[in-house]
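Summary of Year 1 activities. Much of the first year was spent building the evaluation harness for sequence design. The harness presents a backbone, in tokenized form, and records the residue chosen at every position. We chose the following record to illustrate the format because it has been used consistently in internal testing since the harness was completed.
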């Protein structure tokens, strides 16, 4: 028997509907204060229809539009929960962020080039990211330079290790 559209949903139902692992939804609760499912005895979560619309909006902004968690937090702060819920229902759209310009006015002084760590919000595996994450060419060049530098550091350190230290580090 199908539930009414107004019925509360369990975390497993919401996770299946959004095609996300349950731990991602729990993680998002720690990053987005607006996600507040009803919790019953034993900590079981029940999501209201508005909660589900908000989660759909967040998912679309993160995965569909390429926003970072910080970017979605800024949208929630600036535009409000109803705006993100409308995105989740498909009633509203938002342009993808450009990494070379601030998302909101007044941030120009604090704006820096988006790093890979920002883009993944230090939680790529927790977010269920799989496959390739598209990066700007400048980020790819920076990553290659950093990798080259790390390999060179490893080579220098390896040449300084004694045979006993080398055996321990392997």
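For this record, the design step produced the sequence shown next.
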């Amino acid at each position: 028997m199908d539930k009414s559209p107004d019925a509360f949903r369990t975390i497993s139902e919401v996770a299946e509907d959004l095609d996300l692992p349950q731990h991602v939804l729990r993680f998002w609760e720690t990053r987005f204060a607006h996600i507040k499912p009803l919790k019953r005895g034993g900590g079981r979560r029940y999501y209201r229809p508005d909660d589900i619309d908000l989660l759909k909006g967040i998912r679309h902004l993160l995965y569909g539009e390429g926003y970072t968690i910080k970017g979605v937090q800024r949208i929630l702060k600036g535009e409000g929960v109803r705006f993100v819920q409308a995105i989740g229902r498909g009633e509203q759209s938002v342009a993808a962020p450009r990494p070379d310009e601030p998302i909101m006015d007044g941030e120009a002084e604090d704006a820096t080039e988006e790093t890979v760590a920002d883009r993944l919000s230090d939680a790529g595996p927790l977010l269920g990211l799989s496959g390739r994450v598209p990066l700007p060419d400048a980020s790819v060049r920076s990553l290659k330079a950093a990798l080259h530098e790390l390999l060179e550091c490893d080579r220098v350190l390896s040449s300084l290790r004694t045979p006993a230290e080398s055996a321990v580090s392997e």
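Residues 96-117, 119-123 have pLDDT under 50 and may be disordered. Quantitative recovery figures across the full test set are reported in Table 2.
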